[in-house]
Amino acid sequence: MNSQYALIAGQWPELHEEALKVEQFALSDPRTACFYARRTIELLVEWVYDNDSQLERPYGAQTLADLMYARVFCDLAGEQTRRFRLLKDLGNKAVHRSDPIRVGDAVTAARELFQVLRWFALSYGRDPQRVRGCSFNADLLPSRDASTAQQAQSREQLEVLAQQLEERDTQLRDQRLATLASQAELDRLRQEITTLRRANEAAARPEPDLSEFDTRRSYIDFYIEEAGWVHGQSCTHEHEVQGMPNATGTGFVDYVLWGDDGKPLALVEAKRTSRDSMEGQRQAELYANCLEQRYGQRPIIFLSNGYRHRLWDDLRYPPREVQGFYKKDELETLIRRREIRQPLAQATLSNTIAGRYYQQRAIRAICESLEQGRLKALLVQATGTGKTRTAISLTDVLTRCNWVKRVLFLADRTSLVLQAERAFRRFLPDCSPVNLVTNKGGEGRVFLSTYPTMMNLIDAEDANGVKRFGVGHFDLVIIDEAHRSVYQKYGAIFAYFDSLLSGLTATPREEIDRNTYELFDRAIGLPTDEYGLDQAIADRFLVPFRPISVSLRFPREGINYADLSDEEKAQWDLLDWEENVLGTGRVDSGAINNWLFNDDTVDKGLEVLMTQGCQEASGDRLGKSVIFARNHKHAEFIRERFDHNYPHLAGKAARVIDNQVKYAQSLIDEFADSGSDLRRAC
Question: In degrees rounded to 5, what are phi and psi of residue 486?
């Protein structure tokens, strides 16, 4: 078979082998074709991260979504990101949903995979000129009769196959990396690939355009079904309306999404892929006028060109970009909220939840911003001034005034999620908080999660194959400790959910980076509200810290073999040094406590802590203390030296608490207990 994917065959034969199966099965076994389309882009994305020096694999990334939605990859792929997303979603549907996969879906997957592979070859190929001008022709897909006689694979079979292939891919990748001579060789090869890609970037040309009909059939239909709408029932095509300002007064709405009461919840105006979806704004507005006049309810407006979707609730907000279409219950909530939403300016704030003046000032500032039509807010509050309680009070007032129904609270560590969950249960017990880290299937009004957990749950589906969390599921998303790394690693979460967005950070205003301000639509240097450390100290809500400078030679100057005593040289000679250290006889200060630990250095630091550290009010023992280690091994070393120097404390006074320790949360709870023996955490 002459493959349309031959443009990658010579340079990437393994990738070509997987892509061939998409062509092979597109017409005879659509489910398997969609499975291999997803698998092909997964291998492609892994290749890009392994070979392009500009891309650093996100910390903790474990899934295709983690890699695809990372800011560095989105910046590289540009508009191709939307194709990656569609292929991922079609593949997930093939593996996780039992309802039939249409031939049209497989043909769409084959076409979109071609465009991705064309972009890949133009970017990283050694001969991009040969690829330029190539186009996809669905008529060249092998017919059902000419295809393999192999029986179509079931969803269950593909699920098993996916697990087997994942294990094999991991082994092969490890073997390939192990064959490289050194890290320096790997870095050199990656830099060559990056240089090649940069040289090729100018060769890329716009992809062929899709008609409006193909746009609707290939993209919009899929994402409408993904949100749970059933064509011919809750969703109708080419719905006729009367009252249009044309010769006949008749118009045909591309899609109307209906409520159970027979009234229109939303309309979708479709444009071809090459056109801006906003070109249909006026036409959609006129359609909405006709539907409102006929049914007594004004629908929400969606504008889409298949790749980009905009939502327009023209009674309240200007059009805004969204990642997909709302579910029925989410649209019903938007429609109902038009009547039940109450003004925020006169709302009473709870003094019990957050009664301090700056907390209430911050909540008022957010409320004022919301009533002015702004959807995002950024709060700067010093550590220890009650950011979580401010967030809970904000949730309370927005819920009571019917601005929000469901809230998502995001934090970067499991322990912080648990602490926030307990705080919500204490101060807002009726909110039914759900910790998604430990209860992924829970239901409630306030959901709490780490960023990686929510990244995985974005793709989760219910028993009927409908996304569990639609783009409109949450009315308010709260980001704990909003900063640049969160934006770069997990920006896909904030792009996916169409909601009010509130960020909390202790980072001083002048140190917040440009990306964070842009994420929250704020002018640089102007958060929604600010309460800094100096003011908190002046208000006596916090006490100033008192630094103690301790001169420790090794951490400050590093270690030179020639300067060591004979006994220390003997210890040095027993260690397994890296080649560069053996050549210079020196360990720089930055490496101290990273992988080289020194007994005397740690002992002196612990002595300062035990003799000069803050005492409890009673004065009979040291107050709670946190020791920041360089890594887990360093923390374990500090704990060993502590137990060695203070054996009378029976190993209970200092403990390592990090993500490598089992039952770490129980240690955190014990450390938080003022009466416990645990006084120091590493």
Answer: -65, -45
If DSSP codes are grouped into helix, strand and coil, which group holds residue 49?
Answer: helix
pTM of the predicted model as reported, rounded to 2 decimal places = 0.75
Q: Rounded CA gap, 428 and 640, in Å?
A: 42
Q: Are 498 and 311 in contact (CB under 8 A)?
A: yes
Per DSSP, 518 falls in state H
Report pLDDT digits (tens) over 434-478.
Answer: 999 999 988 999 999 999 899 888 877 776 667 889 999 999 999
Looking at 494, 509, 538, the residue that finishes a domain is 538
427 falls within a domain: yes
* 309-312 vs 300-304, strand pairing mode: antiparallel
Question: 198, 76 in Cβ contact below 8 A?
Answer: no
As a three-state string, the secondary structure of 338-397 is HHHCCCCCCCCCCCCCCCCHHHHHHHHHHHHHHHCCCCEEEEEECCCCCHHHHHHHHHHH
Q: Are residues 198 and 216 in the same domain?
A: no
Range of the domain at 179: 6-203
Beta carbons within 8 Å of 297's beta carbon, 6+ residues apart: 263, 264, 291, 335
Could you give the CA distance from residue 12 to residue 44 in angstroms, rounded to a whole number?
10
Can you give the pLDDT at residue 146? 47
The answer for residues whose C-beta is within 8 angstroms of residue 658's C-beta and 6 or more apart is: 632, 635, 664
pLDDT digits (tens, 9 = 90+) for 147-162: 444 566 776 777 777 7
